[in-house]
Specification:
With 287 residues, the chain is an alpha/beta fold. It has helices at residues 5-27, 35-50, 106-112; strands at residues 54-57, 61-63, 69-74, 80-84, 91-99, 117-124, 130-137, 146-154, 157-163, 169-172, 178-181, 187-190, 199-202, 208-212, 218-225, 229-233, 238-240, 249-254, 260-266, 270-274. It contains three helices and 20 strands.
Length: 287
């Protein structure tokens, strides 16, 4: 049976998109990206192309920063990754635009990529230091078809605040507090620095991994509606606060801390790990 002309055209277009996505991903190596970044970006580009999504990556910006910076991100939708990397000398911000209108509206979807906008500015922080402020938005009436994937790499990272929807959030090697809210996304906060400030991580339909060193402290208030709360402490001292702690609820104090650590999600699990090497994990976390 011979293929219809439109089927052959769709197949050729799909193959072309997949080839272009692979070539673009492999050719776009940048000094701020790790090998894992490149593998993830290649896989994401191939997956997006196969799903008839349109996408483009803006030219990264470089900022000269001094000391550990705070990062404040307000993203209307999409993944946010923020990490410290002691091998880089400047702060990098990279944004990838994605539209998800589908095959029947592919050309329109591609044109709509330019509707979204973003800004990244350095502002003086009260008490000293700098805050990197990132904002995204789109005037497109079909905003739900768009998202922005943000990558921030900086030599030293202090506190982090993130607001997003429909996206994962990853924060690595922060030295200060985190305040994260997203929806339908996993959250990872992993740092080798002792955490002694207030922490808030809230998501829905996504897992939370909170991994810190044994010198960290806090009053932990963890709850998952529909999932489990698991904790593993190789170091430090726990004191249970509630005799009713159950598989989905955990109230306890770590190392006599007074700083609140609030973790909330639904459907998925919360994992709290007090370990010697919090960032030594792979793509999947099993403990």
């Amino acid at each position: 049976m011979s293929q219809r002309p439109e089927s052959r055209l769709a197949a050729r277009t799909c193959r072309g998109m997949l080839a272009a996505a692979l070539a673009a991903a492999l050719a776009s190596c940048a000094p701020h990206r790790t090998f894992e970044d490149e593998v993830y970006r290649t896989n994401t580009s191939l997956r997006d192309a196969a799903s008839w999504r349109t996408f483009s990556t803006d030219e990264p910006i470089e900022l000269k920063t001094a000391g550990a910076i705070a990062v404040d991100v307000d993203n209307f939708a999409g993944d946010v990754t923020i990490r410290a990397d002691r091998k880089v000398e400047r702060t990098f911000v990279e944004v990838r635009r994605v539209s998800t209108h589908g095959l029947g509206r592919w050309v329109e979807s591609k044109d709509a990529l330019d509707d979204a906008s973003w800004t990244a500015t350095l502002e003086a922080r009260e008490g000293g230091g700098e805050t990197l402020v990132i904002r995204t938005d789109t005037p497109n009436p079909e905003k739900y078809f768009h998202h922005m994937e943000i990558l921030v790499v900086t030599p030293a990272l202090d506190s982090v605040k993130v607001r997003s929807t429909n996206g994962n959030v990853t924060v690595i090697e922060n030295r200060g507090s985190v305040d994260i809210e997203t929806t339908r996304g996993d959250v990872r906060m992993m740092t080798p620095w002792p955490m002694t400030g207030p922490m808030t991580i809230v998501t829905s339909e996504g897992s939370i991994d909170y991994r810190v060193r044994g010198e960290s402290k806090g009053i932990f208030d963890c709850e998952s509606h529909g999932g489990q709360v698991r904790q593993r402490a190789e170091f430090g001292k726990w004191m249970a606060l509630d005799s009713g702690n159950d598989h989905d609820r955990f109230l306890a104090v770590l190392n006599d801390g007074t700083n609140p650590v609030v973790l909330r999600t639904s459907e998925k699990n919360i994992r709290v790990a007090i370990v010697p090497d919090p960032t030594e994990v792979g793509v999947y976390i099993v403990d």
